[in-house]
Amino acid sequence: MERKVTRLVDIGGVKIGGGESVKIQSMCTTKTSDVEATAAQIGALASAGCDIVRVSVLDEEDASAIKILKSKCSLPIVADIHFSHKLAVTAIENGCDKVRINPGNIGGDKEINVVADCIKAHKIAVRVGANTGSIEKQYLAKYGRSARALVESALCNVNVLEKRGVNDIVISVKASGADLTYQAYSLLSERCSYPLHIGVTEAGTEQMAVVKSSAALGALLLNGIGDTLRVSITGDPVREVVAARRLLRAVGLDNDFVDVISCPTCGRCQWDVISLAGKVNQRVETVRKPLKVAVMGCVVNGPGEAKDCDLGIAGSAEYCVIFKNGDIYKRVPAENAESEFFSELEKIIND
Ligand code: SF4
Fold this sequence. Notes:
By secondary structure, the protein is α/β, with parallel strands linked by helices. The protein contains twelve helices and 15 strands.
């Protein structure tokens, strides 16, 4: 797929845009000034595959805590700030790699100038944007709660920074529905060449959030739009990272993983393929190797349907067959099938 090449922006050594890989983001749910809890959560997010993490900055303690977090954590840190130019300056001076602000809500010209100068002096990036709850009044009045209003509102904030010489900008235009999110980012992509942070806002609890995000962000990514993403979930942020990783794999933007294909089963299936498929998925979840593995319900159709797989298993009530690239490699009694298959799986993972 051809991706839109946007302006390259560096976030603490992690590159967004410019044809770089799509970066995964999430946000801590801890109080930022609780540095032990926040550092532990950032560590868990990094282990799950997160590239950039955002923290809330509600007060001076949160802003100052960024210095300690930077010394304890490996991920670039984005400070999320509303309504206070002073907190933005403190967060930047304490080493945040990017600020998430909307210039329109941090004060007047004088305050915006102070923050813009601080951003430039520390050579950090900034994310601006709009979501359906924060559209600037004039655009809401003119265009209603629409893709156009989101885009105009975001670009208005971009313009405030551009006028002050800030150009390392990432933009977001989030809605809580997949349709409006898709329309807004598609329009925004036509209107600018800044890298886009794509996401659905207030997407809900895990299952629905993943479906909504997959619909909106999946469609955008398949159209070459999006430089960094967050799958917002009401729940443990590690689940956001897992979902984002899976989404990038599903759309072909991350091929360095073990793709496990398994059939939906039907009346021909006479063994517990569901349990084995679950165990295989769990084993390979974090393995970085481009392999294809199949777990199929029956020996009649399984090997043929999965002939492009490096390794596969198909079963019956009495025996299973293990196959490699479509050729039967071994026939094993059903009771030994799981251990035999895992031993072959370990061989190709560690090869
Ligand atoms: S592989 Fe066999 S068990 Fe699985 S869906 Fe196809 S026919 Fe049914």
